[in-house]
Amino acid sequence: MEIEVLAIEINQEPIELYKLLKIANLVGGGGEAKMMISEGYVFLNGEVEYQKRKKVYFEDIVQFNGEAVMPILNPNYVAPEPTIAVVSAKKPAKQNKPSKQEKTNKAKKQPSTGRRKNPQKQKGSDNKAEPDTHSRTGRKSISF
């Protein structure tokens, strides 16, 4: 019986079983690979393998989901690194911060009373609160 085997180049030996499944794109990620191995869906050289970090060597055959994979040792092989897009963005212009002296002058000009300003007092209004509104907090009263 012949099996069609996909050869996966690796640059060092051994490789862990779950990593081989990831490199061969048989699974979506390492977590999925570990789960498939622990549930007994992966065969190593024709036998069910449950060890996630089982060392796989040159000419070992790994079978999963109807596909067979065999690692091939190539010491000169360099795995393609993911490309990273470099995007240049303009930095926003620096805003001049007020100096310490300006901050202290500003604080002296506006003495704090410890209370919030009444939100109902605005320019051009008669500054009268509605009859059902508490004048100090600006909240409407609730009746039950």
Task: Write up this protein.
There is one protein chain. The longest helix has 10 residues, at 100-109. Mean pLDDT is 75; it is low at 82-89. The radius of gyration is 35 Å and the shape is elongated. The protein has a five-stranded mixed β-sheet with strand order 1-7-6-3-4. Strands 2-5 form a two-stranded antiparallel ribbon. The chain has a domain at 5-73: Roll (Structural Genomics Hypothetical 15.5 Kd Protein In mrcA-pckA Intergenic Region, Chain A), CATH 3.10.290.10. A hairpin with a 2-residue loop joins strand 3 and strand 4 (47-48). It is built from three helices and seven strands, in the order ββααβββββα. The N and C termini lie far apart (85 Å). Helices cover 18% and strands 17% of the residues. It is an alpha+beta fold. The protein has helices spanning 17-23, 30-38, 100-109; strands spanning 5-10, 15-16, 42-44, 47-48, 55-56, 62-64, 67-73.
